[in-house]
Amino acid sequence: MTQTVKYLKDYTAPTHLVPKTDLLFEINEQYTDVWATLHIEPQNGATELVLQGDVKLISIKKNDETLPETAYSLNPNDETLVLPNMPTEPFTLTIHTQVEPQKNKSFNGLYESEGNLYTQCEPEGFRKITFHPDRPDVMGEFTTEIRANADKFPVLLSNGNKIRSGSLNDGRHFAVWHDPFVKPTYLFALVAGDLALTSDFFITQSGRRVVIEFYTRQADAHQVAFAIESLKNSMKWDETRFGLEYDLDIYMVVAVGDFNMGAMENKGLNIFNTKYVLADSQTATDADFEGVEAVIAHEYFHNWTGNRVTCRDWFQLSLKEGLTVFRDQEFSGDRASRAVRRIENVKLLRTHQFAEDASPMAHPVRPASYVEMNNFYTMTVYEKGAEVVRMYHTFLGEEGFQRGMKLYFERHDGQAVTCDDFRAAMADANGFDFEQFALWYSQAGTPTLQISGSLKKNGGNLDYVLRVKQILPDTPDMPASQKQAMMMPLAIALFNENGEKGAFKLPNDDNSYNETILIVNQAEQEFVLREVQQSVTPSLLRGFSAPVHLQFDYTNEQLALLLAHDDDEFARWEAGQTLLRRAIFANETALQQGNDLPQNPLLIQALRNILNDNNLDAAFKAMLLQVPAEAELWGERDHINPVQTTMAREALLDEIAHALHGELLATALNARESENADKRGKEIAFYEYNPKDAGLRALQYACFPLIHRFDEAATIEQVFEHYDEMARKNMTHEWGVLSSINSNASAKRDELLARFAAKFDHQALVMDKYFSLIACSRRADTLVQAQAALNHPRFALDNPNKVRALIGTFARNVPHFHALDGSGYAFVAQHIKKIDAFNPQVAAGLARAFNLLKRIEPQRQALMRAELEAIVALPSLSKDVREIVEKILA
Ligand code: 0A1
Ligand code: ZN
Questions:
Q1: Are residues 462 and 381 in the same domain?
Q2: Of the bound ligands, which one is closest to the alpha carbon of residue 301?
Q3: Mutate to test the pocket of ligand 1, among 106, 122, 253, 260 (most ligand atoms within 8 A of CB)
Q4: What is the CATH number of the domain that holds 2?
Q5: What string of H, E and C letters represents the secondary structure of 307-356?
Q6: Confidence of residue 618 (pLDDT cuts 50, 70, 90)
Q7: Pair 429, 409: CB distance under 8 Å
Q8: Are 424 and 461 in the same domain?
Q9: What is the pLDDT of residues 771-808, one digit of tens each?
Q10: Last residue of some domain: 659, 684, 702?
Q11: Would you say the CB of residue 112 lies under 6 angstroms from ligand 1?
């Protein structure tokens, strides 16, 4: 496979359209035969037809006449089939190919998992099934016939509606599916196997009845109820908030244990990683339930934002993903705990997307080039893309945003379009100028806003002047000097010394405000807030109104004031996070210089007030107690010593655990009491997921690790004695208890984990939790335990969930991945090489762990580099891993 770079600027319209594709799948023991009939419409007299394919070709017919091999050429290097002399009038090609799903461990194309067959076609998996233009701007109607042994494959599914089915000779049967909506190949899906069906239905706003069908293994069927409820909630929500109704008569979801990503929005036939379908309170944590709800919603919302209106080319991926993530975030926020959900999203973005933006993998929300598209399902495209959509919403408000959505669908339903088309719809529907805003799609890197504020006399009044400077970083694709100032909303308010929001006026406007949204659109600018009070503490970037770093010279006292009083939960949380970050940085400096660690009485008092505040929502209180993780602390720093960051962070955790032991204990006990209050004498089943109890549990397990830290010996003893009672209520408690003591060095911890593994031996998703506990422990023997876990009978290197649970988690375990002897790097690198041989997509995901290379201190940098150089030296390396590793090394 040659390493060819594809560029956005090289886009050309398709030379041939394929308005209809008829497929026939003959599923046999070892292999599956596929006949694809493409109804082809040449454009502008084109005669050379290029089809994409990475599959064994048997024969080709043109209008029913078999083509000699001299009529075409196959180029495995760039996965093309070139037919130079095709008619300029419409014609059909019938292509016979053969695939071996049992041998496919890449989980792209047609593959086998536990005896059943599944497809994954986004972005370029269809070409592993048959030859086709296989690009999203070639859309057509699909009819799919599947034939297979009726005992082994009683269930035969594809997109759309089942129009025929029946029996054939030799114990075989067939089903024919027709999808009336035009779609690109990447939304094609097929499932064949022995699966349990759970059905339900939904009545749409216009009164149509939609059949809902969930397919799982027999043994898992009892775990789909929550996902089905989530789907119905999503269908309802999209009608009420976006006015969007489902369009087919049936919506199917199939769960599979072998899947590279979370889930896939194939038209009418979603295929899901079991992790995002199966959930009951004995096996799934509250966070897992929230994950199921969000991913079910995400895939459902794609039916309009992705399927009805799709992407012109893969550079536009964020058109569907950024928008759909924004929609699923809004759905989750409307369901419950909006502020906490928002903070979780920001935390995710800042931990992983900011790191990506500061790495050699940095790319704009709309990348300008790629080698392997699978590498661009990134935090930038998804999460930063969602922030970009959120900024339209912030500028336009809900009504204006919905006007834009309406125009977008009016203009583009049934089309494959670009991010610019979306921006134009938002602009045109509102008469709002989004010209400059386009820079968010082309400039990579996280902007920094440097803000300062000062009071100025103005006659008898006081003005508060905010000076805002935006700094754009260099990124590998573009130096800062070539970047232009971006446009973004900056939400602000002013607080006085009593923590009250103060009124102000804007220039040329005599209304009084107590918050506003400033439009930042220049490299440096000044905003004057008139008639303010004597003491001002600004609350900035409220709600995280733009995806940027913020610098403002707050005093610790000002931060404590905002933490105590800000009515914007994000800004309030952020004030606390800034205090925590400052304390960790001070510890790092002290460690570097060999000084005593500083104490943080103001921070401790602020946390004490939070713990003692009975009016705070439990889930929000739990968020306020989260100490930023290492990856959130590195920002854009260089010469990172990861283990020193860990030590500095742990020292702060020790300080908090000791200073606030009594308050932490009381808070945890109170939360437990509140959770139990309405359940006395009731069944354990009463401890199922609901947002209120989830918040109370989150608070208990925000406190418990700190309680354990205060006195490890006593706590592990207590957990060991009372484990069954503590853990039996549900998986959130079981997981919470184990996570809290997971770094305990005693044999009791090992014994508890072993009991956990034995108890859930046959629950694959819970075994993933076991492997991730092994891999995230900060105990000294974690690498040894992770290596041993590779031989556990339930571990499988070819299962992506298992790989992510054990090796992926290990790669995020800062002190162990970055061990100074290089053992952590070697462990991860060794498995990248092994996995790359059969699943390049998952291997490339692991390779991103080395992203920090250039920003890490020299000793570790050399160790990392040696591993990466050994990887790129492999002659058979996939283009997936090669693209990532070469960028990191460049
Ligand atoms: N479109 C899916 C994500 C997805 C992408 C690629 C896949 O396999 C290569 C699978 C799923 C989503 O956003 O949910
Ligand atoms: Zn998506």
A1: no
A2: 2
A3: 122
A4: 2.60.40.1730
A5: CCEEECCHHHHHHHHHHHHHHHHHHHHHHCCHHHHHHHHHHHHHHHHHHH
A6: very high
A7: no
A8: no
A9: 999 999 999 999 999 999 999 999 999 999 999 999 99
A10: 659
A11: no
Helical axes 317-335 vs 419-430, angle rounded to 10°: 60
Instruction: Tell me the CA–centroid distance for residue 447 and ligand 2, in Å.
Output: 25
Domain boundaries, position 522: 448-546
The count of structural domains within the chain is 5
d(CA 341, CA 873): 44
The pTM (predicted TM-score) of the whole model is 0.98
Q: What percent of the chain is helix, strand and coil (3-state, nearest 5)?
A: 45, 20, 30
256 lines ligand 1 (CB under 6 A): no
120 pocket-lining for ligand 1 (C-beta < 6 Å)? yes
Tens digits of residue pLDDT in 517-571:
999 999 999 999 999 999 999 999 999 999 999 999 999 999 999 999 999 999 9
What CATH number does the domain containing 419 carry? 1.10.390.10
Q: pLDDT tens digits, residue range 232-286?
A: 999 999 999 999 999 999 999 999 999 999 999 999 999 999 999 999 999 999 9
Q: What is the ipTM of this complex?
A: 0.98
Which numbered atom of ligand 1 lies nearest the CA of 295?
Answer: 14
The closest ligand to the CA of 263 turns out to be: 1
* Atom number of ligand 1 nearest to Cα 382: 13
H runs (alpha helix) in 108-163: none
Q: Which of 264, 296, 378 most suits a substitution to test ligand 1, by most atoms within 8 Å of the C-beta?
A: 264
Q: Which of 79, 213, 299, 588 is catalytic?
A: 299
For ligand 1, the distance from its centroid to the CA atom of residue 836, given in whole angstroms, is: 19
Q: Is the CB of 377 under 6 A from ligand 1?
A: yes
User: Is residue 636 among the annotated active site residues?
Assistant: no
Residue 532: give its domain's CATH number. 2.60.40.1840
User: Residue 321: CB within 6 Å of ligand 1?
Assistant: yes
* SS3 category, 460: coil
Are 338 and 428 members of one domain?
A: yes
For residue 840, the domain's CATH number is 1.25.50.10
Is ligand 1 within 6 A of the CB of residue 630?
Answer: no
Q: Is the CB of 378 under 6 A from ligand 1?
A: no
> Which of 191, 204, 210 lies closest to 243, judged by CA?
204
Which of 299, 101, 275 shows the shortest CA–CA distance to 190?
A: 101
729 domain residue, yes or no: no
DSSP string spanning 2-37? --PPEEGGG----SEEEEEEEEEEEE-SS-EEEEEE
Q: Do residues 40 and 136 both lie within one domain? A: yes
Q: Return residues with CB closer than 5 A to ligand 2 (ion).
A: 321, 324
> Do residues 530 and 586 share a domain?
no
Residues 417 and 463 in one domain: no
Judgement on whether residues 39 and 135 belong to the same structural domain of the protein: yes
Atom of ligand 1 nearest to the CA of 125: 9
Task: Looking at the structure, tell me whether residues 39 and 132 fall in a common domain.
Answer: yes
Q: Domain boundary at 526, 546, 566, which?
A: 546
Does residue 261's CB lie within 6 angstroms of at least one atom of ligand 1? yes
pLDDT in tens, 333-378: 999 999 999 999 999 999 999 999 999 999 999 999 999 999 999 9
**Residue 719, in any domain of the structure:** no
Rounded Cα distance between 255 and 835, Å, is 23
**Domain for residue 792, yes or no?**
yes
Omega of the bond prior to 628 within 30 degrees of 0, cis?
no
Name the residue type at position 656: I
Is the minimum distance from the CB of 426 to ligand 1 under 6 angstroms? no
305 in any annotated domain = no
∠ CA 41-47-53, nearest 5°, is: 75
Q: Whose CA is nearest to atom 2 of ligand 1?
A: 264
Q: Is 106 in the pocket of ligand 1 (CB under 6 A)?
A: no
Ligand 1 atom closest to residue 306's alpha carbon, by position in its atom list: 1
CA of residue 539 to ligand 1 center, whole Å: 38
Q: Determine which residue's CA is closest to atom 3 belonging to ligand 1.
A: 264
